[in-house]
Specification:
With about 250 residues, the protein is of the alpha/beta class. It is about 45% helix and about 15% strand. Helix 7 crosses helix 9 (about 180-195). Bound molecules: 2-phosphoglycolic acid. The site of 2-phosphoglycolic acid has 13 residues, from strand 8.
Length: about 250
């Protein structure tokens, strides 16, 4: 059985003090969460202090990005070992903002994904289409391409334990959520594609989240879809109260 993962993605928000205060409040609010994994992916400079606060709680941490090399002359970058050393369990790979604003391509993201797996981090690989791609009918092709390129050379055993996040780019931070049925249609297609690339068991094991304007008021219907295994949450993860409502969607 797949346990849903509710993961916050803070993006470029919160100083250390603000981050510590938020997770301090959050851990109390989600302490009784049932059958849900909880994570906050935060700006790297906050993670060390956050880790001290969440220790012993059910809140896990993730990085929003990292580089794939182990060390060296890569000014401004973080290695997988650094991310691990501040207590991260997860790392987001290929968020659409990394792809679009920072020009990260599928080849680079594939290297990052493999580096995460090799270093015992659980990658959350983001995929999704723009509005133009949806409207011009290349949506399914785009998803297939991102899966093939992103997972190139990754073995089934690793795919089973990783996380995919389907995030239609037009729904991120816009307040335009894909309808639960639209999200389910694509996530089901992603699962079928994983089955054809690997096998049925791998497709049934991998967790696939939906992301894009998930809020306390719409999380229940999203989570009622059979193929959706949680959410990657931007704006609504910044406040402990709203994120805890998303985590506790089944209460
Ligand atoms: P949003 O962001 O919830 O603010 O739409 C989601 C994301 O970018 O992961």
């Amino acid at each position: 059985m797949r346990i849903p993962l509710m993961a916050g993605n803070w993006k470029m928000n919160k100083t250390v003090d603000e981050a510590v205060a938020m997770v301090n409040e959050l851990k109390g609010l989600v302490a009784d969460a049932d059958d849900v994994d909880v994570a906050i992916c935060a700006p790297a400079v906050n993670l060390y202090a956050m880790n001290e606060v969440v220790e012993g709680s059910n809140v896990d941490l993730g990085a929003e990005n990292m580089y794939w090399r182990d060390s060296g002359a890569y000014t401004g970058e973080l290695s997988p070992a650094m991310v691990k050393s501040v207590g991260c369990k997860y790392v987001i790979v290929g968020h659409s903002e990394r792809r679009e604003i920072f020009g990260e391509n599928d080849e680079l993201l594939n290297l990052k994904l493999k580096a995460a797996i090799d270093n015992d981090l659980t990658p959350i690989l983001c995929i999704g289409e723009t509005l133009e791609e949806r409207e011009s009918g290349v949506l399914f092709e785009k998803i297939k391409f991102q899966l093939a390129a992103g997972l190139s050379g990754v073995q089934a055993e690793a795919v089973k334990d990783m996380v995919l996040a389907y995030e239609p780019i037009w729904a991120i931070g816009t307040g335009k959520t894909a309808t639960p049925e639209q999200a389910e249609e694509i996530i089901k297609f992603i699962r079928q594609t994983i089955a054809s690339m690997y096998d049925a068991e791998t497709a049934q094991s991998i967790r696939i989240q939906y992301g894009g304007s998930v809020k306390p008021h719409n999380v229940k219907e999203i989570m009622a879809q059979p193929n959706i295994d949680g959410a990657l949450v931007g704006g609504a993860s910044l406040e402990a109260e709203s994120f805890s409502k998303i985590v506790n969607f089944n209460k």
